[in-house]
Sequence to fold (141 residues):
Amino acid sequence: MKDDPSSVDVLYAKVQLTDGSKRLQEFVDTVFAHFLERAPDLMQREFEREGVKLHATVMNSKLSLSLSHQETGPRYKAAENRQRPREGFDARGIFQELGDFDFSEVPLQTVHLSKRREYGADGFYKCVAEYPLNQFQTISL
Fold:
């Protein structure tokens, strides 16, 4: 989420509700503020921004398969991927070709509260709580 596209470690896509409202952003920012205030031992502010930056990870150089890091088996079983240093890459060409690419619209049925740096058997962040939404929303990636 750096501002210099010539040297990035992770490439993100913005996430927003298809109706253009800020309800999802307001919801996650409220949850974030709640945990910062009431459970500071569980949540730490890592960045200067006020709220959560809604995004979908498109590319993460830490999980890439390079010649210097030959992996065997699924990436989520290779714990060493999470320990190795990031390898930056130049994303300017990607932004020029796909800068306004619409990945998809997907229904948003539940919100998961995940614990960073802990992973489930599926390789994703460990889900510690789920919040079902009463009304399905659609998000655009």
Remarks:
- The chain has a mean pLDDT of 77.
- The first helix runs from residue 23 to 38.
